[in-house]
């Protein structure tokens, strides 16, 4: 089971899943390219989607497996959708947490509500400004992302002060901000965006969706369903964008039920 995190996260975001599924699976949560302890090549060109997908393909092979259960969230979900298209043979099953199909997200950016929620996509295109903004006020913005009433984790006991310290340690190290932001720069600056085929997603898919996601409109979940050959959609009521941290018991239950299906 290979876990792919989003922004602003790192491998630790999967702590609840690592502990729970370790009893039955070889569970591995990686730092994506540019995050945490992974390599950080310079230049946004090194963070194009297919380059990051190549990393995951290589990782599965390096771990000695021919396929993996892919569990993904946020940007990790974007990578996972692309992996499922390019190499469905490598994806035993696909678990997506608050990550709509890439075609759906691209279309929804025409929606003014979704554009407003995705304001940071456009701010991240500026040089230097995003890094300054994130550091301002002793990293006030990333702290609020996880703790504010608008965007933060609803079940506060699941994101402790110790958890926040882990984030601060990771993101306050020199050179830790620009590589993750380069994912957004690479995605928005392609003259010809990578086309997404019309074929349905082949691997069996579970989409877990928090209905109180402050970054994504809820119709994104329902619009994703017809783009998958076989999909289970589970919706959470009292959970934020960070569902796997917010409601880990219920999320893990849904994942376990899905994995037991033939």
TrEMBL record:
<dbReference type="InterPro" id="IPR000073">
    <property type="entry name" value="AB_hydrolase_1"/>
</dbReference>
<keyword id="KW-0378">Hydrolase</keyword>
<dbReference type="GO" id="GO:0004301">
    <property type="term" value="F:epoxide hydrolase activity"/>
</dbReference>
<comment type="similarity">
    <text>Belongs to the AB hydrolase superfamily. Epoxide hydrolase family.</text>
</comment>
<dbReference type="InterPro" id="IPR029058">
    <property type="entry name" value="AB_hydrolase_fold"/>
</dbReference>
<dbReference type="InterPro" id="IPR000639">
    <property type="entry name" value="Epox_hydrolase-like"/>
</dbReference>
<dbReference type="Pfam" id="PF00561">
    <property type="entry name" value="Abhydrolase_1"/>
</dbReference>
<feature type="domain" description="AB hydrolase-1">
    <location>
        <begin position="1"/>
        <end position="244"/>
    </location>
</feature>
<protein>
    <submittedName>
        <fullName>AB hydrolase-1 domain-containing protein</fullName>
    </submittedName>
</protein>
């Amino acid at each position: 089971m290979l876990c792919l995190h989003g922004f602003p996260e790192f491998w630790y975001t999967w702590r609840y899943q690592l502990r729970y599924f370790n009893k039955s699976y070889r569970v591995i949560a990686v730092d994506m390219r540019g995050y945490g302890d992974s390599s950080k090549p310079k230049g946004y060109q090194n963070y194009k989607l297919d380059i990051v997908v190549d990393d995951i393909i290589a990782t599965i092979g390096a771990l000695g497996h021919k396929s993996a259960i892919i569990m993904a969230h946020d940007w990790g979900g974007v990578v996972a959708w692309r992996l499922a298209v390019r190499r469905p043979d490598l994806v035993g099953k696909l678990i997506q947490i608050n990550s709509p199909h890439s075609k759906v997200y691209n279309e929804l950016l025409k929606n003014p509500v979704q554009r407003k929620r995705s304001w940071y996509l456009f701010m991240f295109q500026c040089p230097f400004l995003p890094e300054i903004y994130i550091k301002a006020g002793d990293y006030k913005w990333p702290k609020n992302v996880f703790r504010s009433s608008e965007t933060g984790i609803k079940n506060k006991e699941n994101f402790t002060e110790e958890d926040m310290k882990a984030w601060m340690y990771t993101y306050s190290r020199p050179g830790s901000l620009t590589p993750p932001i380069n994912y957004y720069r690479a995605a928005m600056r392609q003259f010809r965006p990578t086309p997404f085929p019309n074929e349905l997603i082949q691997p069996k898919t579970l989409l877990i969706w928090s209905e109180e996601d402050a970054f994504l409109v809820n119709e994104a979940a329902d619009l994703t369903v017809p783009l998958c050959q076989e999909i289970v959609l589970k919706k959470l009521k009292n959970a934020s964008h960070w569902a796997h941290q917010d409601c880990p018991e219920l999320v893990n239950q849904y994942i376990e039920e899905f994995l037991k299906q033939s």
